[in-house]
Amino acid sequence: MGKKKTSMKGSKLGRSMATLFFLLQAIAAAGVVIELILFPLLPAKHMAIVIAVLVFATIVSFALLGIRRGRKLLIVGIIWAILWIAVSLLAVVYLEPARRALGEVTGQTATETIHVEGIAVIVRKDDPAKKLKDTDGYVYAIQTAEEYASSYVAYNYIASSQSINLSLKQYEFYDDAANGLLNGEVGALLADASYVDMLAEYVEGFAGNYRVLEELSFDTELKGIVIPFTPTPMPTLTPEPSISDGPEPSITPGADITPVPTGSGVVSGQATPTPSLAMPPRENSYDVTSNYFSVYFSGIDCYGSISARSRSDVNICMIVNPNTHKILLVTIPRDAYVTIPGVSGGSYDKLTHAGIYGVKVSMNTLENIYGIKLDHYVRVNFTSVERFVDILGGVDVNVPIAFSVNGYTYTQGMNHMDGKKALTFARERHSFAGGDHQRGKDQMELIKAVIAKMQSPAVLNNFSNIMNMLTNNMQTSLTMDQLTSLVRMQLDESPKWTISTYAVQTSGAMEYCYSYKGAKLYVGYINKASLNEASRLMREVMEGR
Fold it and tell me: Percent of the chain at pLDDT above 90?
């Protein structure tokens, strides 16, 4: 009698365990399907295969766990269920973080609003101050030509938050303020953090003789601030450079800008004539897998947070036609002398300076140059490039011209590069007679190498880590649906993309710039014939020719 009761209890326990493991497996399988629906990376046929495998595995579990006789089969069924529960959970653990990370990176709006990310407190390199409290009694320098309100608020914030006594000295321009710091006229300089590298590049003797004591961040747009004295009015700079018609730059560096006569074909307020380029027809709500689209690659010149305001040293436009599987990359030198729509009021500036006003302003500037609409943007910095290349396992880059710099040697032809070597390659310009023109070409070669590596199905094995890395290291307006649809197309069709490049030519001169007043800077006049050729190539890819 006792054996029968034990047998019945064992039977009930076995059925309970069988039911539990079957339900857990079914729930786990359903979780995978839901995750794949929310994160639609796989093409329909691959999705059908995955679902079919999960259904088959669940049916097998039901058959094994539903058999009432045979303890061995029950054990086999439980092991089978545990195996598929583990597989399903691993899939969810792999997909869920990647989906959330991609959601954070994508779909960001390019805003024209100027948000102050930070104000740098700069002292001389040998200054004894180690923290803000140590600047008690210092004279702080502020320049009045631009970003004046932000610096003034920072000055008051330091004095009040640190309970220290400070005094203020105004300079008209940043270079005057920087020289005041170097000459000992002031103890500290307040500057928009995005200008620090500009000071190091443009002010003689500043590089290597300063250090940033602290960078202050503000969460406000600083509207409605009452300024107790009037900043120096900003001068209006409205020269119009003459434009060469030949295929090669013909303007002598340092030549004076010649005003363009009325009726010359140069639109007032533009550094170059905007090409007439009507966009080829396309649906309003287009599909990136069946319609051409354009992407602006902005590379800002700093490490650290991708949200920092900084100059855009990389300005590459990418035209993609998924029907012909053609990609065109067009670069233009950072020093191109242009107007900045909505900012400079018709005055001229370097293209790179547009980046400090926001990615949307850079996009507007390039649209004005090329006469096209830029649909999306991707924004990266030095940290992004290093980490992304490393997480891809390195990339194979075609090096047009051999050179050596910073301990790295680049031979002509294909070179395998890790993140640091790739970044050094993309930043170097002093090793080439072509300077920034060659750097732009090299940057396009690096992008080509990254695109080639991303076409490999093996990248999917590391997709979750890639997405997690991009969360804090990249910004893009492309949506998750658009990116996943492109991934599905690549997995489904495995197309071979043809990637071509073009570099717009400029010729050098020394001119005043809107964003850095007080001294002439090196700029590049855009060559009209080269610009028109770039626009023609863009149209060809858009039209599918």
Answer: 26
Cα 528 to its chain centre, rounded Å, is 28
Burial zone of 380 (CB within 10 Å; 0-12 exposed, 13-18 middle, 19+ buried) = buried
142 forms bridges with which residues in the sheet? 170
Per-residue model confidence (pLDDT) at position 67 = 58
> Please, which pLDDT band fits residue 146 given cuts at 50, 70 and 90?
low
CB contact at 8 A, 445 and 398:
yes
Torsion of CA 420, 421, 423, 427, to 10 degrees: 130
Nearest-angstrom CA–CA distance, 374 and 364: 8
CB distance 392 to 469 below 8 Å:
no
What counts of helices (H) and strands (E) characterise the chain?
13, 19
CA distances from 506 to 96, 254, 354, 439 (A): 47, 13, 18, 13
Identify each DSSP E strand in 381-458 by its residue range.
395-399, 403-405, 408-410, 413-417
d(CA 39, CA 464) in angstroms, rounded, equals: 12
What length does the chain have? 545
* C-alpha torsion sign, points 286, 481, 312, 331: negative
DSSP class of 312: E
What tokens does 138 get? Answer: 């210092």
Of the chain, the end-to-end C-alpha distance in Å amounts to 88
pLDDT digits (tens, 9 = 90+) for 52-67: 888 887 888 777 776 5
Which residues, in sequence order, are CB contacts of 430 under 8 Å at separation 6+? 405
Which residues have CB under 8 Å from 516's CB, separation 6+?
Answer: 173, 174, 175, 198, 202, 353
